[in-house]
């Protein structure tokens, strides 16, 4: 019987307490969550610091740096699926994931530090070549670490709700890393350093050490689920490279990707507008005044994400992942449409209200979509007989990263379409400012509507997940 034929009533009463075999200790959850610091740092710290370092300090053209960011995402599109396939097929005494997690974290930390130690007195072309070369190696190390790390999280527990708790720790630690990344440039400007270049070199060493320390923790302290001899045999026979691409045939996974893509597209096509609306509409061109509100808003966002994650896990346990996610998406929809009234020159600080509504919504998205993907791996195993956490993790991460890259690429053209002209400073036309504010509110709203529809169509309820898990356990007893 395929998962689609389970025939279970999703309204049946279920036991919310995970069985003992599905429990993951708090120590193990902390170990897995620690890896998310390295995951977020490797994904975002380079792009966060590339312009201040290579453009402002070393005169590399910003257009070249933007092109490089797109190339890195294309490289991810090639390497992520390959790494997922390699990890799924690996057979070693240390497991399918842990050796790669440790190796990728160590290489990633070293390469992150090395990136900022280019020789001085060279041409911008040399610096761009240095940035490209080290970054390609760095993002390869990130793939070696990141894809097995995500896959390991999917297989830590077979329990429906315990998976959400595991992913909650991951999301919380991602927010910790996001909070820290915001202050990297500030650290480089301290008086103890001789300018941005010198500051970033030493900050890079420190941050690279953090990547290594936090990244190796899950690889050292977590145990992997051992596959039976029959499962190993099935994997060898069925997990050809085509099996990686075939995850797109798994319908519940497509609903997850659809929700993620629509939410990302709506939000990140116009995310840069927050800067311009604050500087040129709310503060009339006063950049120092705007920077204070922007800094406070970013800090409040990450703090609110961290504070809301236990609430997301609790609501999910009580109401199920689908209902919980729809509730938090609805709150985010209210938050984004409220920008029309809360971004105002009369009271700039009112915009923080939007943060308190948006942050829990996106925390729920990252936490619950990842947990739902773990449920999909069970659904897929019942249907196809293989464990493909690596393949699902690879394409989940690849879709997210490609979505971000395309949004950042297109957003500049949308900004030009509004009529924005940097040469005008605080004298932008009212039509331009109104267009920016309308797009900043409505595009994320429409993206969240799309995400809501995809989540509504997602078929794996708690009852269905438990039935699938029961059938898998019964199958293993007969092997």
UniProtKB/TrEMBL annotation:
The lineage of its organism: Bacteria, Pseudomonadati, Verrucomicrobiota, Opitutia, Puniceicoccales. SUPFAM superfamilies: MFS general substrate transporter. Gene3D superfamilies: MFS general substrate transporter like domains (1.20.1250.20). GO terms for cellular component: plasma membrane. Keywords: Cell membrane, Membrane, Transmembrane, Transmembrane helix, Transport. It is found in: Cell membrane. PROSITE patterns: NA_GALACTOSIDE_SYMP (PS00872). Pfam families: MFS_2. The chain crosses the membrane at residues 56-78, 99-117, 129-151, 171-188, 200-222, 253-277, 289-312, 324-343, 349-370, 391-415, 435-456. The keyword Flavoprotein does not apply. GO terms for molecular function: symporter activity. It comes from Pelagicoccus mobilis. Residues 1-24 are annotated as: Disordered. GO terms for biological process: carbohydrate transport; sodium ion transport. It is a multi-pass membrane protein. This is MFS transporter. Belongs to the sodium:galactoside symporter (TC 2.A.2) family.
């Amino acid at each position: 019987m395929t998962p689609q034929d389970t025939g279970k009533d999703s309204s049946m009463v279920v036991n919310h307490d995970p069985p003992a075999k599905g429990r993951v200790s708090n120590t193990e959850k902390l170990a897995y969550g620690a890896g998310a610091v390295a995951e977020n740092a490797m994904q975002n710290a380079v792009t966060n610091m590339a312009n201040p370092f290579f453009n402002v300090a070393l005169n590399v053209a910003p257009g070249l740096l933007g092109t490089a960011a797109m190339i890195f995402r294309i490289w991810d599109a090639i390497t992520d699926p390959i790494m997922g396939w390699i990890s799924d097929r690996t057979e070693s005494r240390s497991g399918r994931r842990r050796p790669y997690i440790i190796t990728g974290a160590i290489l990633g930390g070293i390469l992150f530090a090395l990136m900022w130690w280019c020789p001085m007195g060279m041409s911008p072309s040399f610096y761009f070549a240095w940035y490209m070369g080290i970054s390609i190696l760095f993002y390869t190390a990130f793939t070696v670490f990141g894809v097995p790390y995500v896959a390991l999280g999917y297989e830590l527990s077979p329990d429906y709700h315990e998976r959400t708790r595991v992913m909650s720790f991951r999301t919380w630690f991602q927010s910790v890393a996001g909070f820290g990344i915001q202050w990297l440039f500030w650290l480089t400007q301290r008086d103890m350093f001789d300018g941005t270049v010198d500051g970033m070199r030493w900050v890079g060493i420190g941050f690279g050490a953090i990547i290594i320390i936090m990244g190796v923790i899950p690889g050292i302290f977590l145990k992997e689920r051992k596959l039976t001899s029959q499962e190993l045999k099935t994997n060898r026979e069925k997990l050809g490279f085509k099996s990686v691409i075939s995850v797109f045939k798994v319908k519940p996974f497509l609903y997850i990707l659809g929700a993620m893509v629509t939410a990302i597209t709506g939000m990140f096509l116009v995310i840069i507008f927050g800067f311009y609306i604050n500087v040129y509409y709310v503060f009339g061109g006063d950049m120092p005044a705007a920077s204070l509100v922007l800094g406070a808003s970013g800090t409040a966002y990450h703090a609110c994400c961290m504070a809301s994650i236990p609430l997301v896990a609790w609501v999910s346990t009580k109401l199920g992942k689908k209902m919980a996610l729809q509730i938090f998406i609805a709150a985010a929809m209210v938050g984004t449409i409220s920008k029309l009234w809360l971004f105002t020159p009369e009271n700039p600080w009112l915009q923080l209200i939007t943060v308190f509504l948006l942050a829990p919504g996106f925390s729920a998205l990252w936490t619950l979509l990842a947990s739902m993907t773990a449920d999909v791996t069970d659904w897929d195993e019942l249907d196809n007989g293989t464990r493909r956490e690596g393949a699902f993790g690879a394409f989940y991460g690849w879709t997210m990263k490609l979505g971000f890259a395309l949004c950042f690429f297109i957003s500049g053209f949308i900004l030009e379409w509004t009529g924005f002209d940097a040469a005008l400073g605080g004298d932008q036309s009212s039509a331009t400012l109104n267009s920016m504010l309308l797009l900043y509110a409505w595009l994320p709203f429409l993206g969240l509507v799309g995400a809501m529809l995809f989540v509504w169509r997602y078929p794996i309820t708690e009852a269905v997940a438990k039935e699938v898990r029961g059938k898998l356990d019964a199958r293993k007893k007969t092997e």
